[in-house]
Design goal:
The complex is a heterodimer of chains A (115) and B (111). Chain A is mainly β and 115 residues long. Chain A has no helices and 11 strands. The chains are: A mainly beta (115), B mainly beta (111). At the A-B interface, strand 4, strand 5, strand 9 and strand 10 of A face strand 4, strand 5, strand 9 and strand 10 of B.
Chain lengths: 115, 111
């Protein structure tokens, strides 16, 4: 069964360092989401792509976060510099998002710890 | 920003009992979905209900949607210990299929 792949699964980094997460969506899924989930809370949408274009990045802290999906397939989310408050689970999801069917498939996430 | 709010925040029941979770949202929606998350894992899609639907069933799951009240409920019947997880509602809009989640309900089913 097709899955959304994320790497790494875990990352520990020192504050002020740069960190990057990678996501490979299910083949054929045009829509890709990055979420941040703080322990005990719901996922917060950071950025949404439709193919290679950003559809919504209103909640992305653009002074330190960047996201790209150059060829409209896999995607990278970067944080530079990392801060202690960035410690969270970063989830990637993909969807066909045809309007009537917006079911999203999630990867296992990357758990980031900033020390 | 969060779109939905789940209620209750936490629910503890005995195996075999039914569990009901509620979700309220703020703006007009296209679809509403329910997801499940086991501790430290990704989310798994459970069921999708469209804005023009009022009720949907899938196995032991029953979802209702009341667009006039901007609310939905998820009923899990005959719960099992394996149903222990966090449950989230997510809504998307017609504009761009942005999918936003609530804070979730933590369900514990005791054997």
């Amino acid at each position: 069964e097709a899955e959304v792949a994320q790497s790494p699964r875990y990352k520990i980094t020192e504050k002020s360092q740069a960190v990057a997460f990678w996501c490979d969506p299910i083949s054929g899924h045009a829509t890709l989401y990055w979420y941040r989930q703080i322990l005990g809370q719901g996922p917060e949408l950071l950025v949404q792509f439709q193919d290679e274009s950003v559809v919504d990045d209103s909640q992305l802290p653009k002074d330190r976060f960047s996201a790209e999906r150059l060829k409209g397939v896999d995607s990278t989310l970067k944080i530079q510099p990392a801060e202690l408050g960035d410690s969270a689970m970063y989830l990637c999801a993909s969807s066909l998002a045809t309007g009537s069917n917006t079911e999203a498939f999630f990867g296992q996430g990357t758990r980031l710890t900033v020390v | 920003s969060q779109q939905g709010e789940e209620d209750p925040q936490a629910l503890s029941i005995q195996e075999g009992e039914n569990a009901t979770m509620n979700c309220s949202y703020k703006t007009s929606i296209n679809n509403l979905q329910w997801y499940r998350q086991n501790s430290g894992r990704g989310l798994v899609h459970l069921i999708l209900i469209r804005s023009n639907e009022r009720e949907k069933h899938s196995g032991r799951l029953r979802v209702t949607l009341d667009t006039s009240k901007k609310s939905s409920s998820l009923l899990i019947t005959a719960s099992r210990a394996a149903d222990t997880a966090s449950y989230f509602c997510a809504t998307d809009t017609l504009n761009n299929n942005d999918m936003r989640f609530g804070a979730g309900t933590r369900l514990t089913v005791k054997p």
